[in-house]
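To illustrate this point, we now present one chain and its tokenised fold:
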Amino acid sequence: MKRKPWLAGILNIILPGLGQLYCGRPLRGLALLMTTVLVLNVSIAIIIFVEGKPFNVILPIILVLATWLFLLINGILTARHIGMNYSLRTYNKWYFYVLLIIAWAFASSELSPIFGKYEAFRQPSQSMGNTIHVGDYLLADKSAFQSAEPQPADLVVFIYPGDNRTKYIKRCVAGPGDTVEIRDKMLFINSVEVIEPDGVKYIDRTPDGRQIIQPRRPDGRDSRDNFGPYVVPTNSYFMLGDNRDNSFDSRYFGPVPVELILGKPVRIHWSPHFDRVGMSVQ
């Protein structure tokens, strides 16, 4: 029975090596699958660990596209080479292919990358400017805090405690037992003034350039610019946005429990601002 070249090529794209299985070449198919997994891991490793933007993102994209083009051509040429001289095997059943595709869909997240768990996120708001801009797409290391606690100044991806669903990116400024206080915009942790990272900014200013500072509210209640002292509870972390005058953070919704912490952003893998593609974030 003749193997259809176009179908072999498409099957190879859907699941690397499946086109070879369709053509009766299971060992070649397995080799293609393992090679593709290796290529994916190398590509992600380049994005995460290699500096030199934007080529640390462009090169992996080219590598992955070239691999899928090879898979397409490989399936087509294999089917043409076999021609009419093919006897159906016991595994040449449509439902067997579907089972393999489903298995690949579940297994691929565990096979790539093999050196850690990463997830892509998008920054939708201005709360982290200048560190992270609106529209930046980031890769976050979901294993970063599995064996270590977030430290002050770490960027953290977490689930918003208010709905246990929405994902936020903020900067950790204090951990369990620390005392947080903000005095006229200046941050103090355990009564020591914090030297802020370069990305932190304050945007509320008068027309002549002076900062607008919100005083405490009636009865001495906390405001955006005068907060605390507040002691962070056990197993929780205090998060602030780098755009301090325009950030919904722990000043408003409280500390973030450790079980809601997802990971640590490490790299901008895409952005509408092309000069930011490939930039590390910290």
Summary: The chain has a mean pLDDT of 93.
